[in-house]
């Protein structure tokens, strides 16, 4: 009717029993007093087992199967430092490129300049896409620092 077939397997397989014993020891250490929560710790035990180097092969089981070392939580620790270093390096490159186009100019109180307006610099209702973005000449009345007037 359903086309099923009954297959028999051996009741005892020594290699499987070694792995089961190892996982049992790992789980025993992980669950401690909370024996009923063993299923929640199974993934941790599996990860630990897959990270452990085998004496015979010299590799961990994950490396044998996938030819790469599994990444664990401790492998992620250097990540923020690498990311920060990459961002700082990029910022230096961008600053160098921007500085090539930049002119250093300082103005004094009483000088007349053109002011560039951002959207926030317009009065309510005066901003539209075709509005002039510069006003002036306007007189500098106060110097706050070399970059702000």
Automatic annotation (TrEMBL):
Database matches in InterPro entries: RNaseH-like_sf, RNaseH_sf, SH3_Tf2-1
Pfam family, one: SH3_Tf2-1
Any one GO MF annotation of this record: nucleic acid binding
Domain Tf2-1-like SH3-like: residue ranges: 110-149
PANTHER family associated with the record: RNA-DIRECTED DNA POLYMERASE (PTHR35046:SF18), ZINC KNUCKLE (CCHC-TYPE) FAMILY PROTEIN (PTHR35046)
Protein name: Tf2-1-like SH3-like domain-containing protein
Organism: Punica granatum
